[in-house]
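wait is this the right file?? whatever heres the structure
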Protein backbone atom coordinates (compact mmCIF):
# COMPACT_ATOMS: atom_id res chain seq x y z
CA UNK A 1 0.00 0.00 0.00
CA UNK A 2 2.60 2.58 1.03
CA UNK A 3 5.63 3.26 -1.13
CA UNK A 4 9.09 2.50 0.24
CA UNK A 5 9.72 6.26 0.32
CA UNK A 6 6.63 6.82 2.44
CA UNK A 7 7.63 4.09 4.88
CA UNK A 8 11.12 5.60 5.11
CA UNK A 9 9.57 9.04 5.67
CA UNK A 10 7.47 7.81 8.57
CA UNK A 11 10.53 6.17 10.13
CA UNK A 12 12.55 9.38 9.68
CA UNK A 13 9.87 11.54 11.32
CA UNK A 14 9.54 9.08 14.20
CA UNK A 15 13.32 9.09 14.66
CA UNK A 16 13.41 12.89 14.70
CA UNK A 17 10.51 12.89 17.15
CA UNK A 18 12.40 10.57 19.45
CA UNK A 19 14.94 13.41 19.89
CA UNK A 20 12.32 16.07 20.74
CA UNK A 21 12.74 15.89 24.54
CA UNK A 22 16.49 16.51 24.32
CA UNK A 23 16.24 19.18 21.61
CA UNK A 24 18.83 17.27 19.61
CA UNK A 25 19.08 17.95 15.89
CA UNK A 26 20.05 15.13 13.58
CA UNK A 27 22.19 15.05 10.47
CA UNK A 28 21.18 13.32 7.27
CA UNK A 29 23.69 10.56 8.11
CA UNK A 30 22.16 10.07 11.57
CA UNK A 31 18.65 9.76 10.16
CA UNK A 32 19.79 7.30 7.49
CA UNK A 33 21.75 5.20 9.98
CA UNK A 34 18.98 5.04 12.59
CA UNK A 35 16.25 4.20 10.09
CA UNK A 36 18.26 1.70 8.05
CA UNK A 37 17.71 3.68 4.87
CA UNK A 38 19.97 4.86 2.03
CA UNK A 39 21.42 8.38 2.55
CA UNK A 40 20.46 9.51 -0.95
CA UNK A 41 16.84 8.47 -0.42
CA UNK A 42 16.73 10.02 3.05
CA UNK A 43 18.13 13.31 1.75
CA UNK A 44 15.37 13.63 -0.83
CA UNK A 45 12.58 12.64 1.53
CA UNK A 46 13.79 15.00 4.27
CA UNK A 47 13.66 17.87 1.76
CA UNK A 48 10.08 16.95 0.90
CA UNK A 49 9.11 16.73 4.56
CA UNK A 50 10.63 20.16 5.29
CA UNK A 51 8.82 21.65 2.30
CA UNK A 52 5.53 20.14 3.53
CA UNK A 53 6.08 21.60 7.02
CA UNK A 54 6.19 18.18 8.66
CA UNK A 55 9.74 18.63 9.98
CA UNK A 56 12.19 21.51 10.36
CA UNK A 57 15.78 22.03 9.32
CA UNK A 58 18.43 24.50 10.35
CA UNK A 59 21.79 25.23 8.76
CA UNK A 60 25.06 25.92 10.49
CA UNK A 61 27.15 24.32 13.22
CA UNK A 62 24.10 23.68 15.42
CA UNK A 63 21.93 22.77 12.46
CA UNK A 64 20.23 19.59 11.42
CA UNK A 65 16.76 18.13 11.13
CA UNK A 66 14.22 18.17 13.96
CA UNK A 67 10.54 18.45 14.79
CA UNK A 68 8.77 20.89 17.05
CA UNK A 69 6.26 20.06 19.78
CA UNK A 70 3.48 21.19 17.43
CA UNK A 71 4.75 18.92 14.66
CA UNK A 72 4.83 16.01 17.11
CA UNK A 73 1.04 16.35 17.37
CA UNK A 74 0.55 15.86 13.61
CA UNK A 75 -1.38 12.83 12.49
CA UNK A 76 0.57 10.21 10.55
CA UNK A 77 -1.80 10.71 7.62
CA UNK A 78 -0.08 14.06 6.94
CA UNK A 79 3.16 12.24 6.18
CA UNK A 80 1.41 9.68 3.99
CA UNK A 81 -0.45 12.35 2.02
CA UNK A 82 2.69 14.50 1.62
CA UNK A 83 4.70 11.61 0.20
CA UNK A 84 2.24 9.22 -1.51
CA UNK A 85 -0.82 11.46 -1.87
CA UNK A 86 -4.36 11.00 -0.60
CA UNK A 87 -5.17 8.54 -3.38
CA UNK A 88 -3.03 5.87 -1.72
CA UNK A 89 -6.12 4.99 0.31
CA UNK A 90 -8.11 4.39 -2.86
CA UNK A 91 -5.61 2.22 -4.71
CA UNK A 92 -6.25 -1.34 -5.71
CA UNK A 93 -4.61 -4.08 -3.64
CA UNK A 94 -3.28 -5.63 -6.83
CA UNK A 95 -2.24 -2.30 -8.35
CA UNK A 96 -4.86 -2.38 -11.09
CA UNK A 97 -5.80 1.04 -12.45
CA UNK A 98 -9.39 0.12 -13.31
CA UNK A 99 -10.38 -1.52 -10.01
CA UNK A 100 -13.55 -0.12 -8.40
CA UNK A 101 -16.73 -1.21 -6.65
CA UNK A 102 -18.36 -1.66 -10.05
CA UNK A 103 -15.29 -3.25 -11.69
CA UNK A 104 -13.52 -5.10 -8.82
CA UNK A 105 -10.28 -7.05 -8.90
CA UNK A 106 -10.19 -10.51 -7.22
CA UNK A 107 -8.97 -8.95 -3.92
CA UNK A 108 -11.30 -5.94 -3.93
CA UNK A 109 -13.90 -6.97 -1.36
CA UNK A 110 -11.31 -8.38 1.05
CA UNK A 111 -8.78 -5.57 0.62
CA UNK A 112 -11.21 -2.63 0.88
CA UNK A 113 -11.79 -2.91 4.67
CA UNK A 114 -8.04 -3.37 5.27
CA UNK A 115 -7.27 -0.24 3.27
CA UNK A 116 -9.99 1.71 5.11
CA UNK A 117 -8.76 0.42 8.49
CA UNK A 118 -5.21 1.49 7.68
CA UNK A 119 -6.48 4.95 6.73
CA UNK A 120 -8.26 5.21 10.08
CA UNK A 121 -5.06 4.15 11.84
CA UNK A 122 -3.10 6.89 10.05
CA UNK A 123 -5.80 9.43 10.91
CA UNK A 124 -5.87 8.51 14.59
CA UNK A 125 -2.18 8.05 15.40
CA UNK A 126 0.00 11.09 16.06
CA UNK A 127 3.72 11.25 15.41
CA UNK A 128 4.12 11.55 19.20
CA UNK A 129 2.29 8.25 19.71
CA UNK A 130 4.86 6.49 17.55
CA UNK A 131 8.06 8.00 18.91
CA UNK A 132 6.94 7.58 22.50
CA UNK A 133 6.69 3.84 21.82
CA UNK A 134 10.24 3.90 20.42
CA UNK A 135 11.56 5.90 23.37
CA UNK A 136 9.96 3.53 25.86
CA UNK A 137 11.38 0.46 24.11
CA UNK A 138 7.98 -0.89 23.06
CA UNK A 139 8.78 -0.36 19.35
CA UNK A 140 11.87 -0.20 17.13
CA UNK A 141 12.75 1.56 13.86
CA UNK A 142 15.40 -0.81 12.51
CA UNK A 143 15.09 -4.53 12.71
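ok assuming it is, sequence goes like this
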Amino acid sequence: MLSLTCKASIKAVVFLGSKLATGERSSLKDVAAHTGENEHTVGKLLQRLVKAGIIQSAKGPKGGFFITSEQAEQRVIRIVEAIDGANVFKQCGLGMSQCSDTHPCPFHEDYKPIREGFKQLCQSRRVRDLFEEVNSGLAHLVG
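The longest strand covers residues 56-58. so i think its the right one actually
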